[in-house]
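COMPLEX REQUEST
Ligand: adenosine-5'-tetraphosphate
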Amino acid sequence: MARIFSGVKPTGHLTLGNYLGAIRRWAERDQHSAEALFCVVDLHALTVEHDPARVRRLSRQAATLLLAAGLDPDVCTVFVQSHVDEHTRLSYLLECTATDGEMRRMIQYKEKAARERARGGSVRLSLLTYPVLMAADILAYRAEEVPVGEDQAQHVELTRDLAVRFNQRYGPTFTVPRATHPAVAARVMDLQDPTSKMGKSHDATGGIVYLLDDPDVVRRKIMRAVTDSGRDVEYDRVARPGPANLLDVLAACGDGDPRELAGAYGSYGALKSDVADAVIELLRPVRERHAELSADPGQVDAVLKEGAARARAMARPVVDAAYDAVGLLPAG
Ligand code: AQP
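STATUS: Structure written out below.
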């Protein structure tokens, strides 16, 4: 059976971008179409300045939201990255496969390093190397598909390169995975700055819709979304990014086509109002289920424990094979 792997990092509260770009598809389609693993990639949250208590809280919240969004632990495997040592074991071998140059070309590294420096902080070495850990996350399971938002395309491409290089050097060990993206809303933009991605670790701008925002907060953020001075509603991602972003979100909520939707609106006010209604309705069941699950954190912890055991059993033989292939003595 085909394998699917994807993850979410607890660097902030999950956003509408995470939901439309990734999580909703995991729940509606991916978990039913393959042997699927979904992971709270907590080690990735340590690549930037972090508060330990917050990472712990956000990790449990992210896991709870994945379940609230519909991931079914009877159907797929939900776990926390740091609970399965195979990820970091494999990461080192892949660091020995990657080059310094290819790591420095990663767009997210350049952007996040610049952000860290602008905040007056230093750049952690792990920020440079974390795409290798992400490659290990995927390759350890011999995943064929990696359902992600558009922003992760470059990292999955790196993962493919590393898998091919490793296989050529040491013999067939890894499956070469491919990224899949949603047809619309593969990159949801910040409502206040529609030229930049809606990112959960970005400073709160009022342009980021969080999954756990109250409905009136969601409505306010959407009604205040930046558009432009155009009179008509037109879908043009380059020239008119604000309206295009709203049309993408509306289309994704209803499985529609953003270009066709544009023709149905005569004003931005009406468009925003419909987007707000659609997003509130989309998120309502997730918020409600999250509230129920939060009342019993022991249940979530049990799912994560069971998920880690299953994931470990899948990753162990793959990582052992990689250790053997590169010439390391078996531990006996
Ligand atoms: N705006 C987005 N639109 C569509 N998909 C998105 N994803 C993230 N943002 C958007 C997808 O959600 C999955 C989990 O994301 P992540 O936790 O790896 O990254 P993030 O939410 O982008 O986290 P950060 O910490 O806020 O990172 P930066 O600083 O890069 O913005 C992924 O499949 C991702 O593609």
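REMARKS: The two ends are 31 Å apart (CA to CA). DSSP finds twelve helices and five strands in the chain.
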